[in-house]
Specification:
The chain is α/β, with parallel strands linked by helices. Helices cover about 45% and strands about 15% of the residues. Bound molecules: S-adenosylmethionine.
């Protein structure tokens, strides 16, 4: 401890002071690019903005941004509406479908099978349905052929999904899956889409940030916690017929009603690359894209493989497969082990050296390691997660730079975070890394209204506002 004026500073406080100074310095450097963007509401940068949009709202993917956001950026920046757009973290494909509605080709990468499945089903539906397909779906809605169907196809469970549905719902799902097998592949994909879209509403669970929250009716009550009541749990028949009706209505109202053959709604190509963007980006051709519109996982410790466990197991994933997906995800949870980035992309060594030159990040890393050594972190893997997140993001950014055509832009939605009493300016650190990798940081657009902290953090350190931003970087 050192004495300074009348105040006693601990090493932690000194390190935090250094971080605050470096943060202010970086803020000063990007001051002219930073502005509050009144047209960017919390609604438009999140799934909320899709609620009234058919097709985009079928599957509630809380991590999605809105189609309106994609439309805004692609149409308000020069070059956005020509050529081909890329989204390396495609989610349920908002970028794809919003781009294609504006007649822009789009490619995307998504790791989670739930996102891949939703995208594939929507691509198929964009191509329309034949009168036969429509008649089959109407029959499923009106006659509910799974009722009493002799064959049952059970679905897998893992520890965190066991007992997620009432027993009559399990029975109905298994018979639905049994009956579904006798349909053609296209109808199966649509029936599976509807099933995935309703799982949460017919279960005892609710997606809640980092994990699944369980209704007390499930009998799973964590000792010491207040029993949770999620409200009405829908019956299988009512939820599935409503969803199938919604899908069918959308498709029939978007294609010419009298055609014998399906009508292509858009002439645009949408291509999904399933897998990790860390593996796939290096295989894509240099200077292909006229824009990149994306939102990486925020490193808020939310584990998608837990919150989407019902859907992943319904798609047949085993415990081992879910665990291995967790490791492939961009490091944003404390469970992520370090990835061997030099092995994935040997040319990334130079990129990783660049990250080492980011002063603010270095001081944050040093502080977190120090706090770990003092035993004050609520999880000792936080320093590894923070290092992993920025290293992996730097590799993604360098690939994006290579893939963009000259003068093309990258738009990225992301949140700042807070760990161990320090706000981490993800926007400034990533923008600085992007600058070192060749981008011109044109704008850091701040979404009005500040997001608070976790209740745990607030109790310890008080409320400090966190920025949510859209970064606009241009390839020089
Ligand atoms: C914030 S969400 C993007 C949502 C998307 N903008 C949408 O509107 O649906 C981030 C996505 O990145 C995906 N993801 C995480 N790690 C990935 C990786 N290594 N490669 C590709 N996708 C990944 C997650 O599964 C998640 O769907």
């Amino acid at each position: 401890m050192t004495l300074q004026k009348d105040k006693v500073y601990t090493q932690s406080e000194e390190m935090r002071t250094v971080i605050t100074k470096l943060d202010s310095k970086l803020t000063e450097r990007f001051k002219s690019q930073m502005s509050i963007a009144p047209y960017l509401s919390r609604k438009i940068v999140s799934f909320q903005g899709n609620k009234a949009r058919p097709a985009y709202s079928w599957y509630k993917y809380k991590e999605a941004f809105s189609a309106g956001l994609v439309e805004y950026f692609l149409s308000n920046y020069e070059g956005g509406t020509q050529g081909k757009v890329l989204d390396p973290f495609a989610g349920i494909g908002t970028t794809f479908f919003a781009a294609s509605e504006q007649n822009i080709h789009a490619d995307g990468i998504e790791l989670l099978p739930i996102g891949q499945e939703i995208i594939q089903a929507r691509i198929l539906l964009e191509k329309g349905l034949s009168p036969n397909d429509i008649a089959t779906l109407e029959l499923w809605i009106n006659s509910q052929p799974w009722n009493g169907f002799p064959e049952k196809v059970p679905f897998s469970t893992i520890r965190i999904t066991e007992g997620a549905y009432p027993s009559d719902t399990v029975e109905a799902i298994e018979r639905y899956r049994g009956a579904m097998q006798h349909e053609n592949e296209k109808i199966q994909l649509i029936l599976r889409l509807a099933l995935l879209c309703i799982l949460e509403s017919i279960s005892y669970t609710r997606k809640d940030g980092q994990y699944l929250r369980w209704d007390a009716r499930s009998g799973k009550i964590r000792p010491g916690t207040k029993p949770f009541d999620k409200g009405k749990i829908q019956t299988f028949a009512s939820a599935i017929t409503t969803k199938l009706r919604e899908i069918l209505f959308y498709v029939t109202s978007h294609q010419t009603p009298t055609t014998l053959f399906p009508v292509l709604r858009s002439k645009c190509n949408i291509q999904l690359f399933p897998g990790s963007c860390l593996d796939i980006l290096p295989s894509l051709e240099t200077e292909t894209y006229t824009a990149i519109m994306t939102s990486p996982p925020y490193y808020n410790r939310y584990d998608y493989t837990r919150t989407y466990a019902l859907e992943l197991t319904m798609l047949g994933l085993t415990h081992e497969e879910v665990c291995s997906l967790r490791q492939e995800m961009l490091s944003c949870t404390v469970e992520n082990r370090e990835k061997d980035l030099s092995k994935i992309g040997p040319e990334w060594d130079a990129v990783l050296d660049t990250v080492k030159n980011q002063q603010l990040l270095n001081s944050i890393n040093a502080y977190l390691e120090y706090e770990k050594s003092c035993g004050t972190l609520n999880n000792n893997s936080i320093p590894r997660m923070v290092r992993g997140y920025f290293s992996e993001m730097a590799c993604v950014i360098s690939e994006c730079y290579r893939l963009l055509k000259p003068n093309a832009r990258l738009f990225m939605v992301n949140d700042n975070v807070r760990y161990a009493g320090i706000g981490i300016s993800v926007d400034l650190i990533l923008s600085d890394i992007a600058k070192m990798l060749g981008f011109k940081v044109e704008k850091i657009l701040i979404v009005p209204g500040k997001k608070g902290n976790s209740s745990q953090q607030m109790g310890t350190y008080g409320r400090i506002p966190l920025r949510k931003c859209v970064y606009v970087w241009k390839k020089r």
